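Appendix B. Raw example, untouched.
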Amino acid sequence: MEDIRSILSMYKSRQKGDDSSLPAREVPTDTPTLSEIPDVFFDEILPHVKLSRSETVLLMLLYRQVWCRANLYRGHGIGPLNAYHELARLLNMSQDDVIHAVRSLEGHGFITTIRAGQYFVRKFFTEENDAKYGQHYEF
């Protein structure tokens, strides 16, 4: 039976600074981005308004496009969108689900269709919350 010293002598010592035998760590090339969503969405909208998964996903996409990213019409609360089939592909949903979700969000007053592919999205999700938090739109 070999003694422990002879076994250990077969392995190189890893001292600080000698990481050549270690696999290189991959450094992520993309850094994650953040989007600000008002707490009122989590505190008042989600608990009190019954939204389906598709409605929630679509609302968050619209909100990000209008309020969280660079947008020439941010002061108006208006954002451009792709066609329904592009939205469906992007969200991995059927086109019928996207159309139904848009109609439902309009029914709740969260968004308004200005014309095909362009939506008005309230900053605080409802007219009452916009008034409460002093959000005014440039018309």
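End of appendix B.
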